[in-house]
Design a protein that fits this description.
6 strands; alpha/beta; 237 residues; single chain
């Protein structure tokens, strides 16, 4: 999606791996305060301010935190299926962690083997495939190959409660008044109607776009998301 947006908007797009994700460093502390600080540091380091931020799920709350903490860094904001509220994570995330632990314990050699182990924890093939993109090859002490996840599973498991939290509680103390788009999946519960008042207080210029999808909007309905993002980020002056 980042390459598509870069093409359609004719501007550079940086796809950032947050800490404990992708190829970024691992750290035992994993909460929105430090995630936001990491993104701010990246923006400063690459002299990108003001930048348009797009984030999905955990990334959405991280982007919101950056906008609320240092609004001068953020030109526009797109939140993908999350809201600025404390909300219990859908039980799926705990199941994903359990399944990924089972995969590592089995020391699988092929992705098809890992997929079979994940099936009882997630029936959707596209979601399993997304989770399995984190698999990398390694060898044990005897030189035998096996697969492991590049993300630190236990750290993420320990951080699930933090991921349900939102560090800002009072919109009278802090808000972001720049252009903001909240996209939500019509089959997802993360941006329920009862979260809209809080969204409006923290982000008074927000727009709302419903997309026919579950929580994984970008992978489930990439065309509709691309269309919404490009329309919102295009220079309409």
């Amino acid at each position: 999606m980042s390459k598509v947006l870069a093409r359609d908007l004719t501007r550079p797009v940086y796809a950032i791996d947050l800490r404990n994700h992708g190829d970024s460093p691992h750290d035992p502390r994993h909460d929105y305060t430090v995630l936001g600080e990491d993104v701010e540091e990246f923006i400063h380091e690459h002299k990108l301010q003001p930048a348009a931020l797009i984030g999905h799920s955990m990334g959405a709350k991280t982007a919101m935190v950056v906008a609320l903490h240092n609004s001068s860094l953020v030109e526009k904001l797109i939140s993908v299926d999350n809201a600025p509220v404390d909300a219990a994570l859908k039980s799926d995330f705990g199941k994903y962690i359990q399944g990924m632990k089972k995969v590592e314990e089995a020391k699988t050699k092929r992705q098809s083997e890992a997929d079979e182990i994940l099936k009882p924890f997630e029936e959707s093939l596209p979601i399993r495939q997304f989770l399995l993109t984190n698999l990398v090859r390694d060898t044990d002490a005897s030189g035998k190959p096996f697969q492991k996840f590049r993300v630190p599973i236990q750290t993420l498991a320990n951080s699930l409660d933090h991921m349900a939290d939102f560090p800002y509680k009072d919109p009278d103390e802090v808000r972001y008044v720049g252009p903001t788009l909240f996209t939500r999946g019509t089959k997802s519960h993360y941006v329920a109607d009862d979260t809209l008042p809080a969204i409006g207080k923290f982000f008074p210029r927000f727009e709302l776009k419903d997309i026919e999808a579950g929580h994984w909007i970008v992978s489930e309905n990439p065309h509709a998301f691309r269309e919404a993002a490009v329309d919102f980020l295009s220079d309409k002056s």
